[in-house]
Design a protein that fits this description.
Number of helices: 3
Order of helices and strands: HHEEH
Largest sheet: 2 strands, antiparallel
Number of domains: 1
Shape: flat
Length: 110
């Protein structure tokens, strides 16, 4: 890519001002800056997670086929947490009840 000099940069800036207007350019620059900061922080988090994963794997003895840990149901005040399937079923039942009550209210209004 050829080097951009001052005249080329001025032409690009003029075209941007003409396309977007002088009021929109600072807002766009702020938006780009925010998105770059978010992108950098997310990539840093991914890098940190990778490093912790690699160090954890290096510290634990490796077997030929490591078995994933089975999650244990948590007990809160003597009641076990329902499985994902049970939670989904409960949410579907709750949604059906809400739809039925909304339909009944709509019938009363008509």
């Amino acid at each position: 890519m050829p080097n951009l000099g001052v005249p080329e940069l001025l032409i690009i800036a003029l075209v941007l001002v003409l396309l977007f207007g002088a009021k929109k350019l600072p807002e766009m620059a702020r938006g780009v800056g925010r998105s770059l900061r978010i992108f950098k922080s997310e990539t840093a988090k991914l890098r940190d997670e990778d490093e912790t994963t690699h160090t954890a794997q290096a510290q634990t003895p490796s077997s030929a086929y490591p078995q994933p840990a089975q999650p244990q149901p948590q007990v809160i005040q003597g009641t076990p947490v329902p499985s994902a399937e049970e939670q989904a079923r409960q949410l579907e039942e709750q949604a059906a009840r809400l739809r039925a009550s909304a339909a009944a209210q709509a019938d009363k209004r008509v």
